[in-house]
Design a protein that fits this description.
Elements (H helix, E strand, L loop, with lengths): L2 H4 L5 H10 L4 H4 L16 H13 L5 H10 L1 H7 L6 H9 L2 H17 L7 E10 L7 E3 H24 L6 H30 L10 E3 L6 E4 L5 E12 L4 E8 L10 H10 L5 E3 L7 H9 L3 E3 L21 H10 L2 H11 L2 H10 L10 H23 L9
Parallel strand pairs: 1-7, 7-8
Antiparallel strand pairs: 1-5, 2-3, 4-5, 5-6
Helix pairs in contact: 2-4, 4-16, 5-6, 5-7, 8-16, 9-10, 12-13
Length: 402
């Protein structure tokens, strides 16, 4: 079968491949342990794995096993692979172990669009997206339960080792190794959950500290209020989007159920990435504490965020209050103008639109655990989204020359 003839000249899998070929992948090659002339099987070329995951993300495929099946059944994925074999384990590892390299690709690709004038980053909108974690609600335990579970795991592990020492033939070697490994993993998960307990307790009032809970499945996940009003284990992803082009320029993830405190770090991140801070930053009311307004203004960005309705119905919400800093007073006055209200309209039409797109591409439930791996997942989504935006902004994707 001639795969080349089955893929149309304008098929977007070709754009994905051209983009990947144009990237500097030294960060990916540096992690390959097998070298020419040495022992070990040849490593899969990172270009193939990168192209597979980018195209899979565009198509809403988030499972390594599903992607592995597609490389044998779907012409576009087979075209990327050529004759290079792969497997779900290699695909799963690659997706999460290159978060720093993916972050640099995001920076380089957006910088290319900035240099060509296709993106200006004059006005940036930020919003959070809570994504269901790969952990069940029943996996959350309080400190006493975790400490008891840790003692039980240690006792079980010690008993298993003693049994093997006293009668090595009691079980087969494979069964013994599996049981020991399971005990070690359980013990390690409980230890990680206990390590996260101080952070969980810090969010509780003094009288409720004993009610803090962490998960033995994904210790860094937290129970959050979701869009449907329910409470489930989740992570809070943050996307910063150029409002003129809907290109994602910044990505972050946290275990905080609230967006409070998430705005001011973003202009700093963008300054480090691109050497410039956006002139205007648009956020919703969940971000806009007075401290955040001042912090954002101090970084050199003009903040547009709704002013909360005052408890005193007779007071003008846009009038400065006693004790307001200059930045906060200016923000209140600014948001009362028609010009500011018109500017603020672009927030929902841009960053919330991006959030909807990534939801439609499968970002509804995470298949990985831990903040680092979750951030890698968000970066895949950002790169895939930006690739589509670049295709619309430029006949020949500017990203392909990154």
């Amino acid at each position: 079968m001639d795969l080349e003839s089955l893929i149309a000249p304008d098929h977007r899998v070709r754009v994905v491949w051209d983009f990947v070929v144009g990237l500097d992948l030294q960060d990916f090659y540096a992690k390959i342990r097998v070298v020419e002339g040495g022992p070990g099987r040849d490593a899969t070329d990172p270009r193939v794995l990168l192209a597979l995951w980018l195209y899979a993300t565009l198509e809403g495929v988030g499972s390594a096993r599903a992607l592995d099946r597609l490389t044998m059944q779907h012409d576009a994925y087979r075209w990327i692979c050529g004759s290079v074999p792969t497997n779900y384990h290699t695909l799963a590892d690659f997706r999460v172990e290159h978060a720093e390299a993916l972050d640099r690709i995001l920076t380089t690709s957006v910088a290319t669009l900035l240099s060509e004038g296709l993106v200006t980053m004059e006005r940036v909108a930020q919003d959070g997206i809570r994504v269901r974690a790969s952990a069940g609600a029943a996996s959350f335990r309080r400190r006493p339960t975790l400490e008891e579970g840790l003692r039980e795991a240690e006792q079980q592990l010690e008993a298993l080792r003693r049994e093997l020492e006293e009668d090595p033939a009691a079980t087969s070697r494979r069964q013994a190794a599996a049981r020991e490994r399971a005990c070690e993993e359980r013990k390690e998960r409980i230890k990680q959950a206990l390590a996260q307990m101080p952070a969980a307790e810090a969010k509780k009032s003094q009288k409720d500290k004993d009610k803090a809970r962490t998960s033995t499945t994904d210790p860094e996940a937290r129970v959050m209020k979701m869009a449907d009003g329910g409470f489930r284990p989740a992570y809070n992803g943050q996307f910063a989007v150029d409002t003129a082009t809907q290109v994602v320029v910044g990505v972050e993830v946290s275990s905080e159920g609230s967006d409070q405190g998430q705005m001011s770090p973003m202009p700093g991140q963008l300054g480090r990435r691109y050497g410039k801070v956006p002139k205007e930053c648009l956020v919703d009311g969940g971000f806009s504490s007075l401290a955040e307004i001042k912090a954002g203004t101090d970084l050199g960005t003009t903040v547009y965020a709704p002013v909360a309705k005052p408890k005193d119905a007779t007071r003008d919400r846009y009038a400065p209050c006693p004790g307001d800093s200059d930045a906060v007073a200016q923000w209140r006055s600014r948001m009362g103008t028609e010009a500011a209200k018109e500017v603020y309209k672009s927030r929902a039409a841009t960053v919330e639109c991006v959030n909807a797109h990534v939801r439609n591409r499968g970002l509804t439930r995470l298949l990985v655990r831990g903040t680092t791996k979750v951030r890698a997942t968000l970066l895949w989504q950002a790169l895939a989204h930006n690739l589509l935006r670049a295709m619309q902004l430029h006949p020949v994707s500017a990203l392909a020359t990154a």
